[in-house]
Amino acid sequence: MAMAKTGNERAKGRQIGVYPGTFDPVTNGHLDIIARGARIVHRLVIGVAVNIGKDPLFPLTERVDLVQAETVRIARETGTEILVQPFESLLVEFARGVGATVIVRGLRAVSDFDYEFQMAGMNYRLDSGIETVFLMASERHQFISSRFVKEIARLGGDISSFVPALTLERTQARVLR
């Protein structure tokens, strides 16, 4: 006799999702979206964008390593496979390449929505088989951005409530050089 699937099992299906970003550095807000995104797909590929135009604090390989280290617990707790890969192509090309049908995006404020809405429309025009899913940032993470975290760290402020422990250690070491 077959067991009925729970709502969570039905929702997850066999979906592969992509969560893209520069993750420079990875914040508690990113991890919140990753944990919540991991509940709606069976595999979540975190795409770490090269994006040299943002003048990254961390080189690409270190950003990939940090995201990987910081997401091990989430993968274990959710039972979702989480992969971390660098990319420098169009997002829809990256998503296609990993077999994703869902792009996960986090929204912090109304100002994020305007940009993300336009991006979702463009991505849909490029590949209508890939849907964008927006997850609202949790209340306690709505104001966190990597840009602010870097600025606060560079000015000697306390970023310990904005980033996980390993990222805190690496960010402080990098800005104190």
CATH architecture: 3-Layer(aba) Sandwich
Q: Count the domains.
A: 1
Beta strand %: 15-25%
SSE pattern? HEHEHEHEHEHH
Strand segment count = 5
> DSSP helix count?
7
CATH level 1 class label: Alpha Beta
Present the secondary structure layout.
Elements lengths: L6 H6 L3 E6 L6 H11 L4 E7 L10 H19 L2 E7 L3 H7 L4 E6 L2 H17 L4 E6 L9 H9 L10 H11 L2
Parallel strand pairs: 1-2, 1-4, 2-3, 4-5
Helix pairs in contact: 2-3
Write out key terms for the chains shown.
single chain; alpha/beta; 5-stranded parallel β-sheet; 177 residues; Rossmann fold
Structural write-up:
With 177 residues, this protein is of the alpha/beta class. The chain has a single domain, classed as 3-Layer(aba) Sandwich (Rossmann fold), CATH 3.40.50. It has seven helices and five strands, in the order H-E-H-E-H-E-H-E-H-E-H-H. It has helices at residues 7-12, 28-38, 60-78, 91-97, 110-126, 146-154, 165-175, and strands at 16-21, 43-49, 81-87, 102-107, 131-136. It has a five-stranded parallel β-sheet with strand order 3-2-1-4-5, with helices on both faces. Strand 4, helix 5 and strand 5 form a beta-alpha-beta unit. Helix 2 packs across helix 3. The longest helix has 19 residues, at 60-78. The radius of gyration is 17 Å and the shape is globular. The N and C termini lie far apart (63 Å). The model is unreliable at 1-12 (pLDDT under 50).
